[in-house]
């Protein structure tokens, strides 16, 4: 049965009643996505929103008019089951090559709507065109469904991931090609849209080269770290096997600053750096990952190819761990401690041992 005026009216009325849930969901997901970018030193921004009820009505009226989803939208419940973007967030990365990594982070941090609760990435790279984005329907993990978020169980939020320049093209292309009220695009309009797509590709290359030039300049600095991006640029070369060094580096950067380790030389002095130190970090991170990552009951995950190689080296020093505990006291009502202390606890629990010839002095 196709959409009827009555189904549309009832769906919009129900959405008005539940609007605060979707607004709360989009806010939670949006803020969590921003934290993911910060924690993993990914340049980008996040916006979020709950769909305007009037926009929902317009969308349903359009479906009714053109017959889209006739076999799916048969009653009010089906409207809420089929439409995935009532709550939405958009992650815009500085560069296109960050998109896949961000989607991987979403899959780890959220549940999804897949058969086994996994997040499914819907890659929308336009064939023969320039539209590039990945859409993911995510849900909040059970451990976070407490307090004011209890009533969000089962609700999904659509997260779109794209580059900043791709977002500009995507929005213009969508408005011109799919919201035309006066006929199809002219040949001239199509050619101009294609020209814009080529400019986006060129711009993405230039942004990449600019960021690489900044990283090269940062490597020459001797002063204190300017920010987490400077931290990654100057510490990454010390760990040649840490191909994902930026992962988890946001938390680590903050910990190093609190410990007064605000230059590469101070960190190297603290670790009594020698030719085997980086290899030791890799060995310890791999051993810890092998145990921690196999446990279903914990959300903690160790990436042995990331800045965790440096983190585990620092956390082997009990005095540094005690200093971090001073900055992050635990106790009832304080909340969950930072990731670095969770890793420190697991290192202590597992009593990780490194062969003497690999152990920093």
Summarize the structure in short.
By secondary structure, the protein is α+β, with helices and mostly antiparallel strands.
Keywords:
single chain, about 350 residues, alpha+beta, Beta Polymerase, domain 2, 2 domains, 6-stranded mixed beta sheet, 13 helices, 6 strands
Topology (elements, then pairings):
Layout: H1 5-39, E1 44-50, H2 53-66, H3 76-82, E2 87-93, H4 99-109, E3 111-112, E4 121-123, E5 134-139, E6 157-163, H5 164-178, H6 187-219, H7 228-235, H8 249-258, H9 264-270, H10 277-292, H11 308-315, H12 318-327, H13 339-350
Parallel strand pairs: 2-6
Antiparallel strand pairs: 1-2, 3-5, 4-5, 5-6
Structure explained in plain terms:
The structure is a single chain. With 361 residues, the chain is an alpha+beta fold. The protein folds into 2 domains: 184 residues, 2-Layer Sandwich (Beta Polymerase, domain 2), CATH 3.30.460.10; 131 residues, no CATH class. The chain is 52% helix and 9% strand. It is built from 13 helices and 6 strands. α1 packs across α2, α5 runs antiparallel to α6 and α10 packs across α11. The termini are far apart. The relative contact order is 0.09. The C terminus is likely disordered.
The CATH topology of the largest domain corresponds to: Beta Polymerase, domain 2
The CATH homologous superfamily of the largest domain is called: Beta Polymerase, domain 2
- Give the termini distance in whole angstroms: 75 Å
Low-pLDDT windows of residues: 331-335, 352-361
């Amino acid at each position: 049965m196709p959409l009827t005026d009555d189904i549309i009216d009832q769906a919009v009325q129900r959405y008005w009643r539940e609007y605060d849930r979707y607004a709360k969901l989009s806010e939670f997901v949006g803020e969590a996505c921003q934290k993911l970018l910060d924690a993993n030193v990914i340049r980008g921004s996040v916006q979020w929103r709950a769909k305007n009820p009037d926009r929902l009505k317009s969308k349903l009226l359009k479906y009714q008019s053109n017959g889209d989803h006739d076999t799916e939208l048969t009653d009010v419940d089906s409207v809420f089951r089929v439409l995935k973007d009532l709550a939405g967030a958009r992650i815009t990365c500085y560069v296109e090559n960050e998109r896949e990594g961000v989607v991987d982070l979403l899959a780890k941090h959220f549940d999804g709507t897949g058969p086994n609760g996994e997040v499914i990435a819907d890659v929308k790279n336009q064939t023969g065109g320039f539209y590039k984005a990945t859409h993911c329907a995510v849900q909040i993990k059970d451990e976070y469904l407490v307090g004011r978020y209890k009533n969000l169980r089962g609700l999904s939020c659509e997260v779109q991931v794209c580059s900043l320049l791709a977002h500009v093209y995507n929005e213009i292309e969508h408005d011109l090609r799919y919201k035309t009220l006066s006929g199809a695009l002219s040949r001239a309009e199509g050619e101009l849209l294609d020209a814009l797509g080529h400019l986006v590709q060129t711009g993405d290359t230039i942004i990449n080269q600019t960021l690489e030039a900044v990283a090269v300049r940062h490597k020459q600095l001797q002063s204190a770290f300017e920010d987490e991006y400077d931290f990654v640029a100057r510490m990454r070369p010390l760990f040649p096997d840490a191909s994902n060094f930026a992962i988890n580096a946001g938390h680590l950067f903050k910990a190093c600053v609190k410990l007064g380790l605000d230059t590469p030389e101070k960190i190297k002095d603290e670790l009594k750096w020698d030719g085997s130190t980086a290899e030791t970090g890799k060995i310890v991170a791999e051993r810890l990952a092998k145990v921690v990552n196999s446990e279903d009951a914990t959300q903690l995950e160790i990436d042995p190819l990331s800045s965790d190689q440096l983190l585990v080296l620092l956390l082997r020093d009990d005095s540094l761990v005690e200093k971090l505990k001073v900055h992050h006291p635990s106790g009832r009502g304080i909340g969950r401690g930072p990731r670095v202390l969770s890793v420190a606890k697991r290192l202590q629990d597992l009593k990780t041992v490194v062969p003497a010839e690999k152990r920093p002095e």
